[in-house]
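Hi all, posting the design record for the shared folder.

TITLE: backbone redesign
STEP: 1 of 1
STRUCTURE INPUT:
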Protein backbone atom coordinates (compact mmCIF):
# COMPACT_ATOMS: atom_id res chain seq x y z
CA UNK A 1 0.00 0.00 0.00
CA UNK A 2 1.44 3.37 -1.04
CA UNK A 3 1.54 6.57 0.97
CA UNK A 4 -1.70 8.51 0.74
CA UNK A 5 -3.65 5.36 -0.08
CA UNK A 6 -6.89 6.68 1.40
CA UNK A 7 -9.39 4.46 -0.38
CA UNK A 8 -7.14 1.40 -0.35
CA UNK A 9 -6.55 1.86 3.38
CA UNK A 10 -10.25 2.31 4.14
CA UNK A 11 -11.16 -0.82 2.16
CA UNK A 12 -8.37 -2.81 3.81
CA UNK A 13 -9.45 -1.83 7.33
CA UNK A 14 -13.11 -2.65 6.71
CA UNK A 15 -12.18 -5.93 5.05
CA UNK A 16 -10.02 -6.85 8.07
CA UNK A 17 -12.81 -6.11 10.56
CA UNK A 18 -15.39 -8.02 8.54
CA UNK A 19 -13.07 -11.02 8.34
CA UNK A 20 -12.63 -10.89 12.14
CA UNK A 21 -16.42 -10.69 12.55
CA UNK A 22 -16.89 -13.67 10.25
CA UNK A 23 -14.52 -15.73 12.39
CA UNK A 24 -16.52 -14.81 15.50
CA UNK A 25 -19.79 -15.71 13.77
CA UNK A 26 -18.22 -18.99 12.64
CA UNK A 27 -17.33 -19.83 16.26
CA UNK A 28 -20.90 -19.03 17.31
CA UNK A 29 -22.28 -21.21 14.52
CA UNK A 30 -19.92 -24.01 15.45
CA UNK A 31 -21.06 -23.80 19.08
CA UNK A 32 -24.70 -23.92 18.07
CA UNK A 33 -24.09 -26.98 15.92
CA UNK A 34 -22.22 -28.67 18.76
CA UNK A 35 -25.18 -28.06 21.07
CA UNK A 36 -27.61 -29.26 18.40
CA UNK A 37 -25.65 -32.48 17.95
CA UNK A 38 -25.42 -33.11 21.70
CA UNK A 39 -29.16 -32.51 22.18
CA UNK A 40 -30.00 -34.79 19.27
CA UNK A 41 -28.24 -37.78 20.87
CA UNK A 42 -28.65 -36.81 24.52
CA UNK A 43 -24.96 -36.24 25.33
CA UNK A 44 -25.67 -34.19 28.43
CA UNK A 45 -22.06 -33.38 29.24
CA UNK A 46 -21.38 -32.06 25.74
CA UNK A 47 -24.68 -30.22 25.74
CA UNK A 48 -23.92 -28.44 29.01
CA UNK A 49 -20.49 -27.40 27.72
CA UNK A 50 -21.87 -26.13 24.39
CA UNK A 51 -24.66 -24.13 26.04
CA UNK A 52 -22.29 -22.61 28.58
CA UNK A 53 -20.03 -21.33 25.80
CA UNK A 54 -22.79 -19.88 23.61
CA UNK A 55 -23.16 -16.60 25.48
CA UNK A 56 -19.45 -15.86 25.17
CA UNK A 57 -19.52 -16.66 21.46
CA UNK A 58 -22.60 -14.45 21.05
CA UNK A 59 -21.03 -11.49 22.83
CA UNK A 60 -17.84 -11.77 20.78
CA UNK A 61 -19.79 -12.07 17.53
CA UNK A 62 -21.95 -9.09 18.43
CA UNK A 63 -18.96 -6.92 19.37
CA UNK A 64 -16.98 -7.83 16.23
CA UNK A 65 -20.04 -7.34 14.00
CA UNK A 66 -20.69 -3.89 15.46
CA UNK A 67 -17.01 -3.06 14.96
CA UNK A 68 -17.29 -4.09 11.30
CA UNK A 69 -20.50 -2.10 10.85
CA UNK A 70 -18.80 1.05 12.14
CA UNK A 71 -15.45 0.51 10.41
CA UNK A 72 -15.90 2.56 7.23
CA UNK A 73 -13.97 5.78 7.81
CA UNK A 74 -15.25 7.96 4.96
CA UNK A 75 -18.54 9.80 4.76
CA UNK A 76 -20.41 10.00 1.45
CA UNK A 77 -19.36 13.66 1.15
CA UNK A 78 -15.70 12.75 1.78
CA UNK A 79 -15.88 9.98 -0.81
CA UNK A 80 -17.34 12.34 -3.43
CA UNK A 81 -14.72 15.00 -2.67
CA UNK A 82 -11.91 12.43 -2.92
CA UNK A 83 -13.06 11.43 -6.39
CA UNK A 84 -13.68 15.03 -7.47
CA UNK A 85 -10.44 16.65 -6.27
CA UNK A 86 -8.07 14.20 -7.95
CA UNK A 87 -7.19 12.18 -4.85
CA UNK A 88 -8.59 8.96 -6.28
CA UNK A 89 -6.82 9.43 -9.61
CA UNK A 90 -3.49 10.07 -7.86
CA UNK A 91 -3.95 6.99 -5.68
CA UNK A 92 -4.82 4.79 -8.66
CA UNK A 93 -1.82 6.03 -10.67
CA UNK A 94 0.50 5.40 -7.70
CA UNK A 95 -0.92 1.92 -7.13
CA UNK A 96 -0.56 1.10 -10.82
CA UNK A 97 3.06 2.27 -10.84
CA UNK A 98 3.82 0.15 -7.76
CA UNK A 99 2.40 -2.92 -9.50
CA UNK A 100 4.20 -2.29 -12.80
CA UNK A 101 1.13 -1.19 -14.77
CA UNK A 102 1.80 1.75 -17.10
CA UNK A 103 -0.82 4.51 -16.96
CA UNK A 104 -0.95 8.22 -17.66
CA UNK A 105 -3.49 10.99 -17.30
CA UNK A 106 -4.40 12.83 -20.50
CA UNK A 107 -7.01 15.62 -20.44
CA UNK A 108 -8.62 14.20 -17.31
CA UNK A 109 -8.74 10.64 -18.67
CA UNK A 110 -6.70 7.83 -17.14
CA UNK A 111 -5.06 6.08 -20.08
CA UNK A 112 -4.08 2.43 -19.62
CA UNK A 113 -3.71 0.55 -22.90
CA UNK A 114 -6.17 -0.36 -24.29
CA UNK A 115 -8.55 1.05 -21.68
CA UNK A 116 -9.64 4.62 -21.03
CA UNK A 117 -10.83 5.29 -17.49
CA UNK A 118 -12.94 8.30 -16.54
CA UNK A 119 -13.81 9.15 -12.94
CA UNK A 120 -17.45 9.86 -12.05
CA UNK A 121 -17.25 11.71 -8.74
CA UNK A 122 -21.02 12.05 -8.30
CA UNK A 123 -21.55 8.29 -8.46
CA UNK A 124 -18.17 7.46 -6.89
CA UNK A 125 -17.30 5.03 -9.65
CA UNK A 126 -15.35 4.97 -12.90
CA UNK A 127 -16.28 4.45 -16.53
CA UNK A 128 -14.00 2.09 -18.45
CA UNK A 129 -14.41 2.62 -22.18
CA UNK A 130 -17.78 4.31 -21.45
CA UNK A 131 -19.12 1.44 -19.32
CA UNK A 132 -19.69 1.97 -15.56
CA UNK A 133 -17.38 0.01 -13.29
CA UNK A 134 -17.98 0.16 -9.54
CA UNK A 135 -15.12 -1.96 -8.17
CA UNK A 136 -12.94 1.07 -7.46
CA UNK A 137 -10.63 -0.21 -4.74
CA UNK A 138 -7.33 0.77 -6.41
CA UNK A 139 -5.65 -2.65 -6.09
CA UNK A 140 -8.76 -4.37 -7.48
CA UNK A 141 -9.10 -1.88 -10.33
CA UNK A 142 -5.43 -2.28 -11.25
CA UNK A 143 -5.88 -6.07 -11.31
CA UNK A 144 -8.88 -5.67 -13.63
CA UNK A 145 -7.01 -3.31 -15.97
CA UNK A 146 -4.12 -5.76 -16.15
CA UNK A 147 -6.54 -8.54 -17.08
CA UNK A 148 -8.08 -6.37 -19.81
CA UNK A 149 -4.60 -5.53 -21.09
CA UNK A 150 -3.75 -9.22 -21.36
CA UNK A 151 -6.72 -9.86 -23.68
CA UNK A 152 -6.71 -9.02 -27.40
CA UNK A 153 -8.38 -5.61 -27.87
CA UNK A 154 -11.79 -5.47 -29.50
CA UNK A 155 -11.26 -2.98 -32.28
CA UNK A 156 -12.81 -2.67 -35.73
CA UNK A 157 -9.78 -1.41 -37.60
CA UNK A 158 -11.34 -1.42 -41.08
CA UNK A 159 -14.37 0.56 -39.98
CA UNK A 160 -12.27 3.09 -38.07
CA UNK A 161 -9.89 3.55 -41.02
CA UNK A 162 -12.79 4.43 -43.32
CA UNK A 163 -14.16 6.98 -40.83
CA UNK A 164 -10.69 8.43 -40.35
CA UNK A 165 -10.29 8.90 -44.10
CA UNK A 166 -13.61 10.78 -44.37
CA UNK A 167 -12.66 13.07 -41.45
CA UNK A 168 -9.17 13.66 -42.87
CA UNK A 169 -10.56 14.53 -46.31
CA UNK A 170 -13.04 16.96 -44.80
CA UNK A 171 -10.42 18.57 -42.55
CA UNK A 172 -7.81 19.04 -45.27
CA UNK A 173 -10.23 20.82 -47.61
CA UNK A 174 -11.64 22.93 -44.78
CA UNK A 175 -8.17 24.07 -43.69
CA UNK A 176 -6.84 24.64 -47.20
CA UNK A 177 -8.81 27.89 -47.54
CA UNK A 178 -9.22 27.57 -51.31
CA UNK A 179 -5.62 26.43 -51.87
CA UNK A 180 -4.69 22.96 -53.05
CA UNK A 181 -4.90 20.78 -49.93
CA UNK A 182 -1.80 18.91 -48.77
CA UNK A 183 -1.68 15.28 -47.71
CA UNK A 184 -0.97 15.86 -44.01
CA UNK A 185 -3.50 17.31 -41.57
CA UNK A 186 -2.94 18.14 -37.92
CA UNK A 187 -4.40 15.44 -35.73
CA UNK A 188 -6.51 17.89 -33.72
CA UNK A 189 -8.06 19.16 -36.97
CA UNK A 190 -8.98 15.57 -37.88
CA UNK A 191 -10.43 15.18 -34.41
CA UNK A 192 -12.54 18.31 -34.95
CA UNK A 193 -13.90 16.78 -38.16
CA UNK A 194 -14.67 13.49 -36.43
CA UNK A 195 -16.62 15.30 -33.71
CA UNK A 196 -18.31 17.94 -35.86
CA UNK A 197 -21.82 17.00 -34.66
CA UNK A 198 -23.01 18.95 -31.58
CA UNK A 199 -22.09 17.18 -28.35
CA UNK A 200 -20.06 14.48 -30.07
CA UNK A 201 -16.79 15.65 -28.49
CA UNK A 202 -18.27 14.64 -25.13
CA UNK A 203 -18.94 11.17 -26.52
CA UNK A 204 -15.56 10.79 -28.22
CA UNK A 205 -12.56 12.40 -26.52
CA UNK A 206 -9.06 13.16 -27.81
CA UNK A 207 -7.56 10.35 -25.67
CA UNK A 208 -10.02 7.98 -27.34
CA UNK A 209 -8.83 9.10 -30.76
CA UNK A 210 -5.23 8.61 -29.65
CA UNK A 211 -6.02 5.11 -28.43
CA UNK A 212 -7.79 4.25 -31.69
CA UNK A 213 -4.92 5.59 -33.80
CA UNK A 214 -2.53 3.40 -31.84
CA UNK A 215 -4.77 0.34 -32.21
CA UNK A 216 -5.03 1.05 -35.93
CA UNK A 217 -1.24 1.07 -36.17
CA UNK A 218 -1.03 -2.17 -34.20
CA UNK A 219 -3.62 -3.83 -36.44
CA UNK A 220 -1.55 -3.34 -39.59
CA UNK A 221 -4.62 -2.07 -41.47
CA UNK A 222 -3.42 0.75 -43.74
CA UNK A 223 -5.40 0.93 -46.99
CA UNK A 224 -9.02 2.05 -47.41
CA UNK A 225 -11.48 0.38 -49.77
CA UNK A 226 -10.70 3.12 -52.32
CA UNK A 227 -6.97 2.46 -52.09
CA UNK A 228 -5.87 5.41 -49.93
CA UNK A 229 -2.94 4.53 -47.65
CA UNK A 230 -2.71 6.12 -44.22
CA UNK A 231 0.46 7.37 -42.53
CA UNK A 232 1.00 9.03 -39.16
CA UNK A 233 3.04 12.06 -38.21
CA UNK A 234 4.95 11.88 -34.94
CA UNK A 235 6.56 14.46 -32.67
CA UNK A 236 10.36 14.12 -32.87
CA UNK A 237 11.49 17.07 -30.73
CA UNK A 238 11.39 17.67 -27.00
CA UNK A 239 8.83 20.44 -27.38
CA UNK A 240 5.17 19.49 -27.64
CA UNK A 241 3.80 20.05 -31.12
CA UNK A 242 0.67 22.13 -31.54
CA UNK A 243 -2.48 20.01 -31.44
CA UNK A 244 -0.58 16.85 -30.56
CA UNK A 245 -2.47 13.87 -29.09
CA UNK A 246 -0.57 11.51 -26.79
CA UNK A 247 -1.35 7.92 -25.92
CA UNK A 248 0.43 5.31 -23.80
CA UNK A 249 1.19 2.20 -25.80
CA UNK A 250 1.12 -1.45 -24.83
CA UNK A 251 4.73 -1.33 -23.64
CA UNK A 252 4.20 1.83 -21.59
CA UNK A 253 5.90 4.02 -24.20
CA UNK A 254 4.33 7.41 -24.92
CA UNK A 255 3.27 7.82 -28.55
CA UNK A 256 2.73 11.39 -29.77
CA UNK A 257 0.55 11.86 -32.85
CA UNK A 258 0.90 15.22 -34.60
CA UNK A 259 -0.68 14.63 -38.01
CA UNK A 260 -2.50 12.14 -40.20
CA UNK A 261 -2.07 11.77 -43.93
CA UNK A 262 -3.36 9.60 -46.75
CA UNK A 263 -1.71 8.84 -50.07
CA UNK A 264 -4.60 8.95 -52.48
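Okay, here is what came back for every position:
SEQUENCE:
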Amino acid sequence: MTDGAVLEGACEETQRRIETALKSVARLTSGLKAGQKAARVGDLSALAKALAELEGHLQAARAETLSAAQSWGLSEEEETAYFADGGFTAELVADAAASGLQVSVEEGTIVCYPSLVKVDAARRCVFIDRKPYRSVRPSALVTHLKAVQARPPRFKATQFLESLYVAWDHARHLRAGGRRPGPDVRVDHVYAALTIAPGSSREYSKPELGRDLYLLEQSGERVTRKGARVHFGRSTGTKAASGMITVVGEDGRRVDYTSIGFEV
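COMMENT: The mean pLDDT is 92.
Let me know if anyone wants the other runs.
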